[in-house]
Design brief:
By secondary structure, this protein is α/β, with parallel strands linked by helices. The protein has a single domain, classed as Vaccinia Virus protein VP39 (Rossmann fold, 3-Layer(aba) Sandwich), CATH 3.40.50.150. The protein contains 12 helices and 7 strands. Strand 6 and strand 7 form a beta hairpin. The two termini are 31 Å apart.
Length: 226
């Protein structure tokens, strides 16, 4: 594992210290059943929908930020079978340490301490990129930089997959019962519940995206291949 970035962004310390930054928080939340509960029973659905886009893992893959659960170890297993490489970046050292502890022994997987909004990587480096449940945790300016950087390091003809919150349908009771409460602890997620990502992130309009919605629109998978 490459040396981690030591400075945690202010917005992470302010709003997400309790979920991602403190070692005790990582020990608490690294329970797949708990993550599934937080996602209202949709973790397995979103994980499997993501894995559908990563059946063949030859070439180079980048995952932008760590995530709880077994998504990344499963990707690593597919990497081992296909002869590709998987790089995972995160700005929080304890997140990288946690991910390393649950990953299979695999020389084709590398972890880097790095800011998603300022990737220290060359242009057109990766065949495919995954951003899983990250955008809703970032301020607008960081979201825009993260997407810009992801597209910068993606090869021409490469695939980028974004899985995150979406705009829930008006008939979805979660929109009225859960989101107002959740918005208190996830303030940067609110725009994603009210507008499409293509409206929030102007750079998305430069590409063609295939969107799949889940759980009455509350979650979405966006895939672009160009």
């Amino acid at each position: 594992m490459a040396e981690a970035v030591k400075e945690i962004p202010q917005y992470l310390e302010k709003y997400y210290w309790w979920a991602y930054v403190r070692p005790w928080a990582v020990r608490l939340f690294e329970r797949q059943w708990l993550i599934n509960l937080i996602l209202l029973g949709n973790y397995l659905t979103l994980r499997d929908a993501t894995l559908e886009e990563f059946k063949y893992m030859s070439g180079s893959t980048l995952q932008v930020s760590c995530c709880y659960g077994n998504l990344t170890p499963t990707l690593a297993q597919r990497i081992a079978q296909s002869g590709g490489t998987l790089d995972v970046i995160d700005i929080v050292p304890v997140q990288l340490e946690n991910l390393q502890s649950k990953m299979p022994k695999n020389d084709s997987v590398r972890l880097f301490g790095m800011d998603s909004a300022a990737l220290m990587m060359q242009d057109a480096r990766y065949d495919r990129i995954l951003i899983f449940m990250l955008m809703h945790e970032q301020p607008q300016e960081v979201r825009e930089k993260t997407l810009h950087e992801a597209l910068r390091v993606l090869k021409p003809g490469g695939t980028i997959v974004i899985v995150d919150y979406g705009v829930a349908s008006k008939w979805n009771p979660v929109r009225y019962l859960v989101l107002p409460v959740l918005g208190k602890i996830e303030p940067y997620a609110v725009p994603l519940w009210n507008k499409e990502l293509s409206q929030i992130l102007p750079e998305m309009s430069k590409r063609t995206w295939k969107k799949t919605s889940y759980f009455g629109g509350l979650y979405q998978k966006l895939v672009s291949v160009e």
